[in-house]
Amino acid sequence: MGAWFFDVMMTADDDDGMARHAIHIQQSLARLGANTLAVDASAENVGVASRHAAADPGLLAALAFRHASAEVLVQEAKRFDIVCSMEVVEHVDNPAAFLRSCAELVKPGGHLFLSTIARTPLSYLLTIVAAEKVFRLVEPGTHTFSKFVNPEELVGFFAKPLAQGACPWISRTYSHGLPTRTEAEVRGIVYVPWRGDWVLAPRATTPWSTQANYLFWVRRPKDDV
Fold first, then answer.
1. pLDDT per residue over 48-63, tens digit each?
2. Closest among 171, 170, 178, 174 to 209, alpha carbons compared
């Protein structure tokens, strides 16, 4: 199996829900046999993840950590079979540049996975009003509503060439502007409070289930070199 690049945005509090899920995903990939590189622009977050991984010495051979950014890694020669960027794009100032950096790190034929938040009234209610102001699940000010990214914006981004002479990663869309599942897919993820966990919404519920948190997958064409 080739190398994996795993780019995670975690809060400084290692008890935060998203931080715990990010750490869980990193360790799960390593246990499945992937050579996993966990990257974060925050040295404190890298330290939190490293301490969690140190509790399981069996992970050390397959899981590495690095304090860096996707933009820094692009300057290096290494490319990856799978790039995952979880809960990051809605925090960056230039999402188009960030997405291009993530895409450039993917080998031809490889996969890019994103998780982010749609810019809708429902997401504002859930992430800013409920999570930040009412229940204080995350620090107030963590999210900026104007930076949230709608699924159709991601689909549209990858439906255009990412560089001069390159081919689009998404060649066509169908009903509700959704791409063919051989090229990309959008799936909602829903928090179930009585379980204290997130669940993947059924495909049949798209697009209404992508009105808040959602996952986005797209594959780089094999002939895009």
1. 788 888 888 888 778 8
2. 178
